[in-house]
Predict the 3D structure of the following.
Amino acid sequence: MKEGPSLLIAGSAACEQAAVAKWPGANIVGSFRDLALIEFILSSVPVDIVAVESGLPTKGESFQDWVARFKNAFPKVSLVILDQGWELAEKDSSSAVPESPNVLTPQTIVVWSPKGGVGKTFLATNLSCAAALSTGGKAGLLDFDLYSGDVAVHLDLFEGPTITELVPVLADTRPEGLDKFCLRHGPSGLSVMCSPRRPELSDLVTPEHVRGILSLAARRWGLLYVDTPPDITSDVVGECIDAATNVVVVVTQDVAAIKQVKLAVDILRRLGIKEERLNVVLNRASKDSLMPQAKIQEFLGVELIGSIPDDRKAVERSVFEGKPVVLYSKSEISEALWQVASRLSPGLVRDKGQKKPEKRRGGLFW
Ligand SMILES: Nc1ncnc2c1ncn2[C@@H]1O[C@H](COP(=O)(O)OP(=O)(O)OP(=O)(O)O)[C@@H](O)[C@H]1O
Ligand SMILES: [Mg+2]
């Protein structure tokens, strides 16, 4: 048996690696993903340190409540929360509830465009993953493109519940109860509510449901992102825009897209959406285009909050792997997305490590 403290780990393989690297001489009692199992083991096995991945699913309570209860129940055990991300950063047990490095105000950021195929889902998945990385998983993404949502494709989330399972029990659901109907995107720690898997199930979701879910989700996650369909007449889009603290309108250099976005921006203004809530982002920007950024700004009468380059190779790879480009270390497109994310939420800082984790070095018991 090795010298050193005894260590019990709850989290993913990346969390396990981070814990092993942090306490190289520790005697690893075990590594699991289930917090209830950790408590069960502690009731009979003496352990010095419990390292827990931030935001791990809990049963019937929030992660923060679990931390508080754990500390009461096992006062002698040193609890260390590890923030998720490719390079896991340890937080001191005295502040066991993970906190973002800067103060962030709760926000509901709705990504929308009247034009299809301009990159709404691409932006919604990237911005929300950036937020999750930056806040230790305190971010959620709702796919409200109910008839043809692609969030699951962009994030490679195919198994598990969707909004369809939530709708019948929505009236009795509390904010923490949403977790049961969400999937966790492992590489970023983002909580994701996917749209119905089959279009014929989409009619079951009404605008009232959408309103209810938006309200619950805003209370569940500090930073909430919403992907939407390209339909200005949709009641679902109306509900999303009503609930939004920020509407991110996506435009490209395509003339038809610019014209449609101009109309949409005018409508949003007439609806009383203030300039600071209206954030236009240029996607697929190319220097070769006849429509440079300055011309688009002039035509739309708004200042663009960001310009994301066209990078087919990087985007195709990211969708193929289910890992948005913000997860990859420096590239022009990743930098541009992080800039938009922090322009929208000024307290949001780039996660320090987005490297691939090293290969797992051991099994469950060491
Ligand atoms: N910056 C970019 N560079 C290269 N390709 C991109 C970029 N942004 C998006 N794409 C690609 O463009 C296509 C459309 O993107 P996306 O699905 O995000 O658009 P959308 O607006 O959500 O479409 P829909 O209206 O159908 O929901 C995808 O194949 C995506 O990979
Ligand atoms: Mg889409």
